[in-house]
Amino acid sequence: MVRFLLARPIAVTMVFLALMVFSLIAFTKLPISLLPPIDVPQIVVKVSYPNASPEAIEQNVLRPVREGLLTLNGLEDMESKAGSEVGTIRLQFAFGTSMELAYIEVNEKIDRLTNSLPEELDRPQVIRINTNDIPMVRIQVTPKEGIDHAEVTKLAENVLKKRIEQLQGISLVDINGKQERVITVTPNKAVLAGLGMTEQNVINAIQSGNRELPGISVKDGQYRYFLRLASRVDSPTDIEGLPVSAANGHTVPLGKVAQVQYEMGETMGYHLYGQQEGLVVTVHKQAAAKMNELMEKVRASVELFKKDYPQVDFAMTQDQSTLLNAGISNLQTSLLFGGIFAFGVLFVFMGNYRMPIIIGLSLPTSLVISFLVFYAFGISINVISLSGLALGLGMLIDNAIIVLDNITRKRQEGLPIFEACVTGVNEVMSALISSVLTTLAVFVPLVFLSGISGALFFDQAVSVAAILFVSLLVAFVLLPLLYKLFFAKQEWNSKQEDSRFFKAILKLYKGAYQKLMTHRKLSLALLFALVPLFLLVGLALPTAGLPPIDKKDAVLEVDWNEPIGVEQNRDRIKNIMASLEGQYEQAEADIGVRQFLLFDGENAVQQATVYMDFEDRESKESQMEQLEGLLTENYPMASMEIKDAPNAFDQLFNANIPYYELRWKMLESKQPVEASTMGTWLEKLPLQDWKKGPGLQEESAVIFRIDLEKLALYEVEIGALTGAVEKLFGHYPIDEIKHFNEVTPIKLQGNKNDFGQILNNNYLQGKEGQRYALSNFIQVNYENHYKYVTADKIDVYQSLELTGENPAEHELALKQWGKDRSLSVSFFGQYFKDQENVKQLMGILGVSVLLLYFILAAQFESFVQPMIVIFTLPLGIGGALLVLWLTGTSLNVMSAIGLVVMLGIMVNDAILKIDTINRLKVKYKEQEKEWSQAKVLDRALYEAGEIRLKPILMTSITTILALLPVIFSAGLGADLQRPLVYSVIGGLTIGTLTALYFVPLAYWAVVRK
Question: What's the whole-model pTM score?
Answer without folding.
Answer: 0.73
